[in-house]
UniProtKB/TrEMBL annotation, chains A, B:
The keyword Hydrolase applies. NCBIfam families: aman2_put (TIGR01180). GO terms for molecular function: carbohydrate binding; peptide-N4-(N-acetyl-beta-glucosaminyl)asparagine amidase activity. It comes from the Bacteria. It holds the Pfam family Glyco_hydro_92N. This is Glycoside hydrolase family 92 protein. Residues 290-751 form the Glycosyl hydrolase family domain. Residues 1-20 form the signal peptide. GO terms for cellular component: cytosol. GO terms for biological process: carbohydrate metabolic process; glycoprotein catabolic process. Keywords: Hydrolase, Signal. The keyword Aminoacyl-tRNA synthetase does not apply.
Length: 774, 774
């Protein structure tokens, strides 16, 4: 059945008409609200590129763990009230935490210290708002709080957030500072917190939480543009078996400090004839770190906002995009979302808190964290190697290695934020991040130490069934959950170790890990043609349902349909096991056209964006549309990409079909929009799909420019007719990293009909480890 | 009625017979078990002078808060079992905490991870023991653990403790490391804890507790002389609403780290043919601090023990004591107990955790804490100025001022340990400690900064009714509890500020605080002749019962009988209000002879050691016996001292009549034994009582020697007949600090009958602020 028949264009189809780039460039096209509805889990608030502070409104935190999924980023576009503005948020995470140090303005005499019920205005300090009076752009967010009678504006620096509140001059102005509020809350999450008012009016404090990361400490320092006229530090903790002795001050008012597990502060400023500005810095290290971070970024709201805009203008300007308006907005926003994590997590003086909960010193680099590596090794990190300075990429590697050195397990981060490990998802995907960076020529880190960290991580038997993996060649499902996914992901990670080891002339390690790179075969069932979980006795676990998706099952957030394609480094080897090109193409088609109407995946988070068994809302599918290229059918990849882009992305709050996952969903769109995608980081190749831009220009870290042009791009010409690189025909369906880095022009000729002859032969196909070396 | 009639000598009366000093000097006379029974609250374990580690057996921690009073120091001499050996203990505290990082050896195959029931041997890891197989000396403790089949020995360095366990060679050797065990426990006390096994076999960890001091963090590092053959890190926490994601390792065995609120570890060593030594260091800063502290004090058990003994020999050798055996033992032990606190609390690299819970750097001094100031300003600190190097005393001042600088309230410590404030007891008695040190010529600190810290503390309105005190001249009982005690104690503290201000040529401050020094008059009721609590309206609170002792009442751990004598700096002024010498003497006699048989003070902690309304077990009475001197009747003081010493001290575990209070009870005995006592620190005078030694020699910080000789001392000659200083008659009943510091000999001629003429005239009496200056 011709694929075209399935391409029912949605109402909001991309109008692929020629259009000039708008004034203001890429920055003006960013819409921070994209992804704040649906399950995109992005936030609309203020952040600078890779900023430690994400100052953003929380519309609701009154939920417990999984019930908070809708509010993973604090803000949900369809909520009617804002509870306050807190300083830390993940961009697009599936699981969540953060929402630290919530501040909310309150006008008038009565100040309620509970957020109240969104359905009952006036029942607490939360306030209704309207999207008509809300605006957001990179580094800036503003909203009018109806019940609070306050115009609120937010901006951010690297380690600071700045609030500006315009109260009515006739209103007594207050702030509520609520240390109880948190994303993904549950009883007992807050282990300890404290507040301290300094004689100069500065407030410092801290909170230690047992959330996604256990025993995470966050300190802050807060200064106000107007003097405090009064304050109350209130503990609402109930049933404290032992309260100790009473410190200075009676009751909650006028005390200089308070500590406990449920603190909220009322801060009074009297009547103000000018806006109240609040400068806040955070630190994972200590209060002195927060104070130093605050001092390191001086200036008032407007000055900080100007710097934030300048930073975004510079970073977003690294890609010029000429595309139809919806696509231009989506790509600009994707670029914006890809520049939020990994976030800076170290202080301005270089100190940072590591996975051992101890404070370390970063010498010569900036410690970065928020590593959602299972997601971001795929396209987010490869994107950063193209559009961020070598310094940023080497910082990332040094931060990963510094974390390994401080790890109680001596292994690299798995899913880390603010230096703290959460043990979420599988694999040791810091490994491909480091290998890919090194192989691309990124230096500025100790490569031998990095390789050592990679090897230690890959050999750590207690982690995720690695003991069995090393002994048997696969993770045994009767001893370790998600064994099938783990085996294939480990094999890919191992291949990147081998690549880097060889580059460092460590033939011994290269041999060891090249061997392990083939272990994916040990979990492939040639009878069914699927990657399947094996038991320690060597048999595949039965019964087997290739459509089942369950936590703790044979696969990780997926099933056999998605995971059977995960051999990024040796698709040719996989395809041989699957019966060759024709069988593979048929099977890929079967995947995209699978009838899932009778399946229910609603119990599984992040299983969204279904096109048959292709699930774009989650990462295991992300490379799959590009696999037709490996089977000699690039035109089929081109069709699938159009199908995915048109159905999975919209320039609207609900415009992401799944969690943005710290930039991975966005990086996928950005690469795909430019016309190529890094299917196998570490291979130094990008698989060519089809562009969705008329023209785009990348300013590379080395200062050169690489331009993509799509001649004739419009809705009626979705196929690649021919490709030239610097004017010379490109007869292969992949691009080499060095070709991009050399600068130049990649030009596509788009056409209405598929070109079934372009780049179909064996030598035109992208890298596969078991194919003859090119 | 002649006083003598009341002096019924107890069975264990002091045999005041001449005896030669024993071999081994003062050290050999120390008995660390004195005070471990009754309510002395001392511990028998290993500590070096002012050591950060107090490694001592805990016989029971299964109690909650006030029920733990008997076990304030962990060990109770009449308990049948030992639960384990923990690394931190107060010496003689009334309230309590600590008992950190409990280690217990276990032999054999079955290792129970709960302490079990003392009444049911074998029900847990605790073990029976016998005092016959137990020994303790300064820096060393040993016991045979019957159920564990282990000989256990403990020694200590400054920041380390070293354990030595002799298992039977045929037994599998284990240790239980229980981070759940704590003194003064209660549900929820442990906020967080963690354990980490390093590849080299070192274990580090931490515990954060919400005990007497809120959010106190203690880190440790632990190394073993034999390799670990296995381990389990177990969390026994129940009802954890959210556990996060699983880290490497399944279950509790072989994991490299574990964190939570209820951790216990089983450590396996297999069969050992030599003793197992365990070196442990602690730090309030971080794990790196603990590791550095461990490295800073190298050596095995015997080496560390030898250093500890050497240190004690040096410090205890500063006073040579020739006295009858029981008194010699009591005085030697009192000296030992007076050299435990203030404990070192900063790391070997100078870092320390301050009252703001932040880490600070001590530049050029060693940070010390464990300041039980309401107790110790009286005699403990004055003792240290006589027998410790200037460096130790200036360290104390610098630590107090550093704490003030880091205090969220900008005030000096009240009751602080490990840098953390507990807000226990009343007053700002760091002030007399600093003033007394400065006026005695101790330098090495910034005197202006110290004075500033003193003034800030005395002017901090939110603390303990100081706002009212400054505005009205007294603390108002209807707005602040214990107002009578606070008013008189503040007035004394203020007088010491005035003294120091004058010495620093700050006449403005001297005038301000001289005025405040007279505020004690505002709370003295001339009608009843008692210090009484006044209300804000100026009236004394009624009804008034001078014998009532209650928490939160008009007085602090005492009543009008004790507190009406608290004007250390102006007893003459007080005596005039009381009606003159004769009335005062009668009233003192009435106090000592008060019939308390119908009163019940059992509800009040630390109200013990009653001689009428003189309550030697608690501090407000401590100076009272010396007050006869101020009324011209030194011979009556001499009688009372004998009465007190004979009834309140014994060289036995139950030999202290009340909590030793971090050395104050001991310092009282030591001064009294030498024949003089610092009634008013800051006055530079010691009030002469009567000696209980044949001879004693102090090696002073300046290297000079001051000798006390009591000619003719025995039971039949309890009175001072005459006194000479360096051979010249001393006709006054006080001694000047500079006279001691000049070195020389103070010689008493003891006699059977009182000398009612010696030092009775006005000019022979000790300092009183309102008397003409001498």
């Amino acid at each position: 059945m011709p694929l075209r028949a399935t391409l029912a264009l949605p109402a909001l189809a991309l109008a692929l008409a020629a259009a000039a780039p708008p004034p203001g460039g890429t920055l003006a096209d960013v819409d921070p609200f994209i992804g704040t509805g649906g399950q995109g889990h992005t936030f609309p608030g203020a952040v600078v590129p890779f900023g430690m502070v994400q100052l953003s409104p929380d519309t609701d935190t009154a939920c417990v763990i999984r019930a908070c999924y809708d509010h993973a980023a604090g803000y949900r576009h369809d909520d009617p009230t804002i509870q306050g503005f807190s300083h830390t948020h993940f961009s697009g995470a599936g699981h969540s935490d953060l929402g630290d140090i919530l501040v909310m303005p309150v006008s008038g005499e009565a100040v309620l210290l509970e957020p109240g019920d969104a359905a009952r205005p006036g029942s607490g300090y939360r306030s209704r708002f309207s999207h008509d009076e809300e605006t957001a752009s990179p580094g800036y967010y503003a909203v009018t709080l109806a019940d609070a009678r306050v115009r609120a504006e937010m901006t951010a620096g690297t380690r600071i957030g700045v609030h500006r509140y315009r109260f009515r001059p006739s209103d007594a102005a207050h702030l509520v500072l609520d240390l109880r509020s948190s994303l993904y809350d549950y009883p007992g999450k807050i282990l300890w917190s404290s507040l301290r008012l300094h004689p100069d009016g500065t407030i410092t404090g801290m909170r230690e939480t047992r959330g996604w990361a256990p025993a995470r400490k966050l300190f802050f320092a807060m200064r106000f543009s107007a003097p405090l006229t009064g304050h109350a530090f209130v503990s609402t903790e109930e049933d404290v078996p032992y309260k100790g002795f009473q410190g200075p001050g009676r009751g909650s008012d006028a005390v200089a400090e308070r500590a406990g597990r449920a603190l909220v502060a009322r801060l009074d400023f009297g009547r103000l004839d000018r806006p109240l500005e609040v400068r806040v810095a955070i630190s994972s290290v200590d209060a002195a770190g927060a104070l130093a971070n605050l001092a390191a970024e001086p200036g008032d709201f407007d000055a900080v906002r100007a710097r934030a805009q300048e930073a975004w203008s510079r970073e977003l300007g690294r890609i010029e995009i000429d595309a139809p308006t919806p696509m231009r907005r989506m790509l600009a926003t994707a670029l914006y979302h890809s520049l939020i994590a990994p976030s800076i997590a170290g202080d301005s003086d270089g100190r940072f808190r590591g996975p051992d909960d101890q404070v370390h010193q970063a010498d010569g680099f900036t410690f970065r964290s928020t590593f959602s590596l299972w997601d971001t090794f795929r396209a987010e990190h490869p994107l950063l190697t193209l559009i961020q300075p070598e310094r940023v990429n080497s910082d990332i590697v040094r931060s990963l290695v510094a974390s390994q050195e401080a790890s109680p397990h001596s292994i690299l981060p798995v899913w880390q934020f603010q230096g703290r490990e959460t043990w979420t998802m599988i694999g040791y995907h810091a490994v491909p991040v480091i290998a890919d960076a090194y192989l691309k020529g990124i230096r500025g880190f100790d490569a031998a130490a990095a390789l050592d960290a990679m090897v230690k991580s890959a050999r750590y038997a207690p982690y995720g069934g690695l003991g069995d993996y090393m002994a048997r060649g696969y993770v045994a499902i009767d001893r370790e959950p998600e064994a099938a996914s783990k085996t294939v992901e480990y094999a890919y990670d191992d291949w990147t170790i081998a690549r880097m080891a060889r580059a460092l002339s460590r033939g011994d390690l290269a041999a060891e890990f090249d061997k392990r790179a083939g272990y994916w075969r040990n979990t492939f069932d040639t009878r069914t043609g699927f990657v399947r979980a094996r038991k320690a006795d060597g048999t595949f676990r039965a019964p087997f349902d290739p459509t089942a998706i369950n936590y703790g099952s044979d696969y990780t957030e997926g099933n056999a349909w998605q995971y059977s394609w995960f051999v990024p480094h040796d698709q040719a080897g996989l395809f041989r096991l699957m019966g060759g090109d024709r069988a593979v193409i048929a099977r890929l088609d079967r995947m995209f056209e699978f009838d899932t109407s009778k399946l229910d995946y609603s119990h599984a988070e992040d299983i969204a964006g279904l096109i048959g068994q292709y699930i774009h809302g989650n990462e295991p599918s992300h490379h799959v549309a590009y696999l037709y290229n490996y089977a000699g059918a690039p035109w089929r990849t081109q069709e699938r990409l159009r199908q995915i882009v048109e159905s999975q992305y919209k320039p609207t709050p609900d415009g992401l079909s799944g969690n943005d996952d710290l930039g991975q969903m966005s990086a996928w769109l950005l690469f795909t929009g430019l016309g190529f995608y890094p299917v196998a980081p570490g291979s130094l190749e990008y698989v060519i799909g089809r562009p969705f831009v008329h023209r785009a220009a990348l300013t590379l870290p080395n200062g050169k420019r690489f331009t993509i042009v799509a001649d004739g791009l419009d809705d009626s010409r979705p196929y690649v007719g021919a490709v030239t690189l610097n004017g010379r025909p490109l007869a292969r369906s992949f691009l080499r990293h060095k070709e991009i880095m050399a600068g130049g022009e990649l030009r596509f000729r788009m056409q209405a009909a598929p070109n079934r002859r372009w780049a179909t032969g064996p030598s035109a196909r992208p890298y596969s480890a078991s194919s003859p070396p090119r």
